[in-house]
Amino acid sequence: WVADYNYLFSSSSGRLLDDQPDFDPAKTFLIIDEAHNLPSRVESNSSKELRSLSLEALASELTEIGIDNRLALHLRNLADECTAFGKGDVLSLRQLDDITDNLANIVKLFSNQPIEYESISPESMDTIWSLASGSTAMKERPECFMGWIPENGNLKIACIDASSEIRRSIASFRSCLLLSATLHPIDGFLEQTGLDQLDHRPISLSPPAPWLDGAYDVAIDTRVDTRYKHRDKSSPETADTIARLAEKFAPIAVFFPSYAYADKVKALLNESYPFFRIASQARNQMETVEQRAAFIDEALRFSDVIFLTLGSSFAEGVDMLGGKINAAVVVSPALPEVNPVQQYKRDYYQNRNRDGFERAYLQPGIQKVNQALGRLVRAPGQSVKVLLQCNRFAESKTRSLLATQYKECTYIFTEQDMANWLVG
């Protein structure tokens, strides 16, 4: 069986695989590729978004086709809950528990009524799926969810910890093999997947690749601080550095934590160095493998600088840069933005005697960096110079999360240090 994560770890899709003839997890060897993404994917699948207007529309459609009035009443009550809070509010556990009870009643009523779903609009069907997804887990482990209002009338319920769901799914299989080159730190990964509590842990595999030794010439540029409040000051230095690498090694790849940051530096680069040809990854415009391949192929042939975004399909899933570029720049450790969900996750782990900042911000940020750099050397004989630009990369906690092949590095403190590294 070959399937997406959802068919094992999503409550709304998992039944499709369970219903297949001859499928028996107890007799199945499970292989999970790109296993480092497992915690975030399952957390995302277990989260939900409720909109008051969508709930009202669903209630009206169900009333029109003659469904039990109690179901419409519960839906309208849930819609009222979405509008009872103001933008930016974070729900208490008691308030979230009340909403969970309402969701459980709605799901129960749906399961007990014969509904002609073909009479319901696609938009309302999406709402029904959203209501059903993850509701059981919310009731069983309410502390692993948080609710907040990103905008009026819109309630987001985010899963903070999906370890129990992952562990329960994996434990049902006879054996499991986890494939990934970036499971570091392994103790954090095992905890986030609940595998630290299994009697028989799955096999984890990082394929031996001795040819990676010495393939990366890494330097940390401590002259630059890429934190948000310092970006206006540091961006000219970033643009100048990119120009110097492009002049010597073009084409080069430059990875940014966001499209906005890339646009800012691109404008400066165009202003000061108009002769460089820059190819920029577009937002949501290259969804297929063919489109991404065409973009990379054209960029390598006709551009001096290729701007890419950390965490995107180009940074994680495109191998076409391997052996094709001689230098790359990673601008910033790419920590997630500070928002109510990340802050809740930080507090959640901190209250469990873990390093909340590392779990909520540092680990996911450096994981994106490790993934992006891993795409630059894909075979024996390939090599690349990599500049990690931000003084935060030099901090011991940040460096400890870098993959082994990136930890041996040169520190750049002065202009002369940069000149020496470029010719080294």
> In angstroms, what is the radius of gyration?
24 Å
Query: What percent strand?
Result: 5-15%
N- and C-termini, Cα separation: 49 Å
DSSP helix fraction: 40-55%
Judging from the principal axes of the Cα atoms, what is the shape? globular
Number of helices: 19
Task: Give the tally of β-strands.
Answer: 13
Largest sheet: 7 strands, parallel
Protein structure class: alpha/beta
Global mean pLDDT: 88
Strand order of the largest sheet: 9-10-8-11-12-7-13
Low-confidence stretches: none
Describe the structure.
There is one protein chain. The protein is of the alpha/beta class and about 425 residues long. The relative contact order is 0.11. The longest helix has 19 residues, at about 95-110. It has helices spanning about 5-10, 15-20, 40-45, 50-65, 70-85, 95-110, 120-130, 135-140, 165-170, 185-190, 230-250, 260-270, 290-300, 315, 340-350, 355-375, 395-400, 405, 415-424; strands spanning about 30, 50, 145-150, 155-160, 175-180, 205, 215-220, 250-255, 280, 305-310, 325-330, 385-390, 410. Helix 10 links the parallel strand 5 and strand 6 (about 205). It is built from 19 helices and 13 strands.
